[in-house]
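Async update (no meeting this week)

Hi team, since we skipped the sync, here's where things stand on the single-chain job. The sequence we agreed to prioritize is pasted below, unchanged from the tracker. I ran it this morning and attached the output directly underneath so nobody has to dig for it. Comments welcome in thread, and please keep replies under the output.
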Amino acid sequence: MIAFIFTFLAIFFSLFGIYYFIAYNNAYYWKRRGIPGPISKNYFLNFLEDLLNPNYNGCFLIRDWTKQYGPIYGILEASRKVLIVADVKLAQEVLVKDFEKFHARKVGALVPDMNKDKGVDVFLASGSRWKRLRTIMNPCFSVNNLKAILPIMDDSCKVMMKFLEKAVETKKPFDISKFYHELTMDVICRIAIGQKGSKQFENPNVEIIKAILSRKGIEWLDNFAHMFPSIGRYLFKFLIGSLAKFLSLPGLNLMDSIKKSVEEKKVEKANGITENTDFIGIFIDAEADAENIKDEAFTKTSMKVEKKMNIEETIMNCFLFLIAGFDTTANTLAIVTWHLIQYPEYQDQLYDEIDTYCPDEECTYDQLNQLKLCEAIIKESLRLHPVATVVVSRQCVEPTVLGNIAIEKGTYVQVDVMTLQ
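Output:
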């Protein structure tokens, strides 16, 4: 027994020593290449937890580093190498000019294989798969479809106004962001996953999405996946596949709910109900077996796109709408409201514009397009307080040169949006 314990400890400390050496060597990756940047004393996680600090958003930390290290520097998120860019020309190279070399996004370490996994959404997909999914989803945002869903959005807004009126009647201060979160989730659920009627302040998805965005319950797994990216994603799939019944992971019930909505929509279509007011209907029209979908090698100029998606992609893209549209839209509304309070003169001008172009209770799509001041206020608010800055990032898919810096395959490039704006 003593021999076994001794052997176990010897193996453990040997492996730990090897990993510590690798982590230590990795921590100085950018310094060895002559690229400035902060170096963490935590060689295992580096700046991962600092960037995910809910009390001081990572975008502010990156902005602070840019002031210290200049427009281009390197950091590490556990084992991930990230090049921060705060230069417009370099950002344009990554996002536009050399898109073929940076067509993969900087996604979470727990995300499954973006090329092999059946269930990947348009945000996580890369290359030809991204192009295929994006082409299928384009009709969701066509003028005709936006006009079709406008009455649903209008109805949800009217429901929210009733709740706001009750809050105002109390003559006490209240947090308007809660109302915007409820409104946003209500609209998304109605137009993306076919929810019937408004469920504001009764929708369990609000708290579920908040838990997902906060990494609640999976912090340890996410950290592990960042430290060991080659096995982290497979471990996560094993946990949610084999141990789902024993784990309290936010989102699993939501995925089941979306799957149920998809099945219900398929039954409706089979019965001749073909109105595509929600996005699920558009996705189902393109549904095909995964085995019958072939994505060719990606090029910017390739025009051939197969307009098909499998059932797993349908579910994941509905899930994406809930995740991506919830916090960003609600926060944008809250930021715009705050600015209007700070500048009452613009609030009055905006009121006059709305009263001029939208005199009736019901607003049309064309009337909304005439609200130029409203559009300018929203854009200026987002310039001053950009949301979801972390998504303005890419992964290098083949060795290249950015500026005068050689970029290895697998390196991440993140744009410092706060500084640029």
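Quick observations from my side:
The longest strand covers residues 72-77.
The beta strands are 72-77, 80-85, 104-105, 393-395, 400-402, 405-407, 412-415.
Reply here if anything looks off.
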